[in-house]
Fold this sequence. Notes:
The structure holds three protein chains of three kinds.
Chain A: H1 19-23, E1 39-45, E2 51-57, H2 59-63, E3 67-71, H3 73-76, E4 103-104, E5 110-116, H4 119-128, E6 130-135, E7 161-166, H5 171-178, E8 182-189, E9 201-207, E10 212-217, H6 222-233, E11 240-243, H7 259-271, E12 275-278, H8 281-287, E13 294-302, E14 308-320, H9 331-336, E15 346-355, H10 370-385, H11 390-397, E16 406-407, E17 413-414, H12 419-429, H13 432-446, E18 449-460, E19 470-477, E20 483-487, H14 496-508, E21 515-518, H15 536-563, E22 570-573, E23 576-579, E24 582-588, H16 589-598, E25 612-618, E26 624-635, E27 642-652, H17 659-678, E28 709-713, H18 730-748, H19 761-768
Parallel strand pairs in A: 1-12, 10-11, 14-15, 20-21, 27-28
Antiparallel strand pairs in A: 1-5, 2-4, 2-6, 3-5, 7-15, 8-13, 9-10, 9-12, 13-14, 16-17, 18-26, 19-20, 19-25, 22-23, 23-24, 26-27
Chain B: E1 7-9, H1 14-24, E2 28-31, H2 37-42, E3 50-53, E4 63-66, E5 69-73, H3 78-83, H4 85-90, H5 92-97, H6 104-109, H7 112-118, H8 124-132, E6 135-140, E7 144-149, H9 150-153, E8 154-156, E9 159-160, E10 166-174, E11 181-188, E12 195-204, E13 207-213, E14 220-221, H10 223-230, H11 235-243, H12 256-281
Parallel strand pairs in B: 1-3, 2-3
Antiparallel strand pairs in B: 4-5, 5-10, 6-7, 6-10, 8-9, 11-12, 12-13, 13-14
Helix pairs in contact in B: 10-11, 11-12
Chain C: E1 2-8, E2 11-17, H1 23-30, E3 49-52, E4 55-58, E5 71-73, H2 87-94, H3 104-117, H4 123-129, H5 141-154
Parallel strand pairs in C: 1-5
Antiparallel strand pairs in C: 1-2, 3-4, 3-5
Helix pairs in contact in C: 2-5
Amino acid sequence: MSASTAGRFVGQSVKRREDPRLLTGHGRYVDDVMRPGMLHCTFVRSDVARGRIVGIETEAAKDLDGVVAVLTASDLNPHAGTMQPTMLLTTPGAPLRPLADGDVRFVGEPIVLIVAESRYVAEDAAELVEVDLESEPPVIDVEHALDVGVAVVHPELDTNLGAEMAFPIAPELAALLDGDNAIRRTFRQHRHTPVPMETRGIVVEYEPAGGVLEAWMSTQNPHEAKQAIARVTGVPSHLVRVQGHDVGGGFGQKFFTPREELTVALAARRLGRTLKWIEDRRENLIASNHARADVAHCTFALDADGRLLGTYIDHLEDAGSFPIGATGGAGALVGLLFTGPYKCPQASLRTRAVWTNTCGRGAYRGPWMFETVAREQMVDAVAREIGMDPLEWRRRNVVPTSELPYTLPTGLPLDMVSPSETLEQAAEIIAYDEFRAEQARAFAEDGRLLGIGLGLYVEPSTGMMDPMGTETAVVRVDPNGQVTVSLGTGSHGQGIETTMAQVVAEELGIDFDDVTVVQGDSAVTTFGRGTGGSGTAVIAGNSCRSACAVVRAKAIEIAAHLLEAAPDDLDIVDGQIAVRGTPSRAVAWSEVARIAHLETARLPEGMEVGLEATATFKAPPFSWSNACHACAVEVDRATGVVTVLRYVVSEDCGVMINPMIVEGQVAGGVVQGIGGTLYEHFVYDDEGNPLTTTFMDYLLPTTTEVPTIEYGHVETPAPTPGGHKGMGEGGAIGSPPAVFNAVADALAIVGATIDHTPLSPDVVLGALG
Amino acid sequence: MKPAPFEYHAPETIEEVCSLLAEFGDDAKVLAGGQSLVPMLALRLTRFEHLIDVNRVPALSSWRRENGTLVVGATTRQRSMERDAAVADAVPLLAQATPLIGHFQIRNRGTVGGSLAHADPASEYPAVAVALGAELEIAAAGGRQRRVAADDFFVGTWTTVIAADELLVGARFPVWPAGSAFAIEEVARRHGDFALAGVACAFVGERARIALFGVGPAPVRAPDAEAALAQGADPAEVAALAVRDLDPSGDVHASSATRVRIARHLVERVVTRVQEDLRAAG
Amino acid sequence: MLPVEMIVNGTRRNGRVDPRKTLADFLREDCTLTGTHLGCEHGVCGACTVLVDGEAVRSCLLFAVQAGGSEVTTIEGLGGPDGELSAVQDAFRQEHGLQCGFCTPGFVVSVTALLHENPAPAEQEIREALSGNLCRCTGYQGIVRAVQRAAEAAR
């Protein structure tokens, strides 16, 4: 942390405001919400991946004591508005529907909604529903989903191609890609899923007389949920309120408003009852959203010194059946970012999103991150092929800081990043050269396989699509000088109540304890972007800064008037507005606030009463953060077990508001990456039946699978006022390739290779032969 | 995920438990630690009209050393097997195996008898019972009792010789002679997970017993390997014999081939250890 | 419905429950102590951990009727009456051992039990003991540090 940028609060690891209530069991998560007359929901779901609904028998379920309603498509679907997210309303996507209607398109698709007096009874009723399904051959393998003669997942769309973007290949590039110095590899990333510890859930209360709908929801984005619920239910959006309160993790899964939440809202509207639906873990694994199912055929063309001359990536992403958000993916960015932090004059790409009869794809921490997986794994493969150390290859090819700004071959402008610095810092912290010596010795003397891997990346901000690039803050000073900040965010672990209070306290010159943050509630905050896409520090932070600038200027003007001093001569420090150099000529911030509200005759002539401001910040279309991950592993030759020995992250997110929180975000992402590369795997059989439906089979990493993570920080300027850069997703971007590369490095000692994940004992032993 | 309805019984004597089992047969299930049963009920993978909670039967909940045997009541918590020095002293293999079971919260409720009666192919206690040559005590209504050798007790995946109207009331672990060597090792995907493969071994003089787990529907004895070990063969040879006839099922966690490969490696490690221990003991 | 009576956080609680109602649901609904969380309901994630007669157990795997006559301690019962944090709770705060907070009650209860039995655990012992509690936000970094800090503070 650079001393020049650390302030009294910003730059300090201030302990979190959220913690006392969360540590003492007084958090308010959606399942903690109890409303009068509340009923409980569960869904009957498809157990075939593709098929025709021949009939649904609900009488026995309806007759069960305690059951209030048993709803099918005919009860709900005709009354549903669109279920597409707000920012994708005009983007074609899968034909979303509340309940399956006439056919089912993935195992887990909701067919019937049961409403009962308790979840226990609802599940009893669910067992009494008979759904007669005629199964049909499903489309499961995304790599064959576009073959001629393959069934169509969505008959309404008559193709399984959901989206495609392709750049032309210039003749010069084509020649390079076909040339002798072109190296080709295919990389696959397997299907896994975000798994927040709190599953999804919603409580919806519809009051018919006034036509008001109130919802409590596990969401990253209350304003988006409000808009989506309004559209699907037909309740005017200004009569819809969504509250998030405490949200137990999201990682992208709760950024848009998923299907079941919208269906329950619609049902509450239709029934005029208060309904609660809490997703159970099996549903969360099978039917919420999946991610990371990608394939890429990559080509690097090099010169004789191993420098990149051109690249091509042919990327395929599995969109599943009903993705959340158009195709659920970010294929365009995968193609556009493929060359990452490396110098490369020419590149081309094709990226396609394809439907399959599986659970829909959705955002998961760095939805485009497969570009880093494919590229960084390609870098190591290429380096090994030409006999160069992967660190040396990166040194040779990384865009040096002196050559910034640098335009990527796909046209994106890269600036204010530090990939070369983070590369060197990570290598130094992990003691790369010493590790190489240790690796050689361990093999020569003990036959052990140690490996080291790097993951170097640049991460773009999401300023591009409205409303992702914008946040509005309201900074409101009470008559006693205490400040309330309201933001349209949806905090779910990032500590927004703490970090934004740090920013505001710093900007206003008052105490952190005198600032409180209100967020996660659509009724008391201005329309905002929610929380996701690594945007809080940059976008929410700077909206706070902008609003504080107005409030601060007004407070100083009032104080200048009271003190008969010039505004430029005044500073606010520790809640005192004083003449610089003459501390006795001062007025307390709290006094200024009191006067602004309650003794308004003392305000300057013509000044408006009160002390508050609303300001909006829109991020520039591109701002970048970056990091280098370094991972050291041991591969057990006898058992195929991979042990992560060391993990280093050198990251640059500009000015850190709260270093403790930054490192926490990185750590969480890193462990998700370790989990995703070594343990987690959502598996379907060939018929599209899920095989990993509980935590016994879908394996999350625990305390024993991860090491203590080591951090290094680099701080380069950002093109935004506070100097911050987005970093919430980065931990999950650099980690999968760093782990993969480390294992590949270990296996290369004995000539074994890997090309797919997760790196289970099966895969590792298979490679070792 | 809520269980289907059931009637709950909390008898206080073995006889009452057995009467209930005789009355309800396959419609009843014994609830001991619940660490394996309750998840299955919650997932509605199974259901029973009657649950017979045996946690309030004092006669089942204690253990004692009776000369050359550690007699462990069926509802003895797994944690007491790892906490009490007297267990480590009498039956070291039991004390060594226990920390491998799941996590401490599971072991706080999980029972010795429950684990044996549940007979998961990848669990440790059945293999320990087989490796040591333990006996299982089974009761039925009318005061009937029988003892079954561990070798005969486990017959298949989640299947023992306990009949629908019978109750496992205890396990009798023999105290092996001073100077015996014991080892148990397993490989799991994560700490506390079910073993992909595991090996338990007890060895003294010319008496060697090897039980593999996670590689068949029930613990697998390896008689040829045992004979080789007793005759002082080297660990690699014993290991090759131990896995020669294995044909485990594979699943999402590990294929059949991987399990066999790991089992072989573990036999080699375990045999190396017990041989070293015996040499050190002189 | 069966009667059940137990002491929860020092207070006698009575109820009538369906025998299949889990202890977790009894605590959350009948006792309105919603600090105990349900992360999986099949005994793997540990978010539902409470102390029953001093032992850490998964409350989703116990039926409420089974806890009759027992003393149950939940996350709400660990701190002081005026909201003072226990040593373990404070250590979690100091070391950023929580982010979204959903797994936290299970961890804090488990750590409280762990340190009671093993007041000076080595790092590997800490990791092994807590491998039955899942966290998705912290990567366990702050959690392990919190346990070390709480152990240190008790010395």
